[in-house]
Specification:
This protein is mostly helical. 55% of the residues lie in helices and 11% in strands. The chain contains four helices and two strands, in the order αββααα. The protein starts with a helix and ends with a helix.
Length: 93
């Protein structure tokens, strides 16, 4: 197994053990309501949100490059690149 896979398994086991140790209810204040909620639910939800935000901010960005095969690479001729007509070329030379 690769090191990344072992690291992910280790983190998952540690989070699971941590969640199972914290199952007692706590008083959680919402804006208008006060509820008794299990620490397991609170920590689990915020851990999940943290993983989602971490993936979202760390994912690779899609960059369009002239070397990508995914996109249409229609090559322009020399005349199309500089925008000169034949008449302009004759005048310049």
């Amino acid at each position: 197994m690769r090191a990344k896979t072992i690291f992910i398994i280790l983190i998952t086991v540690l989070i699971t053990v941590f969640l199972m140790m914290n199952t007692d209810p706590v008083k959680f204040d919402f804006i208008f309501v006060e509820k008794d909620i299990s620490k397991l639910v609170v920590v689990g939800v915020f851990t999940f949100i943290g993983f989602i935000l971490g993936y979202w901010t760390g994912r690779p960005k899609v960059v369009v490059s002239t070397y990508d095969d995914k996109f249409d690479n229609t090559h322009k001729t020399d005349q199309e690149k500089d925008g000169l007509t034949e008449e302009d070329r004759e005048y310049i030379s």
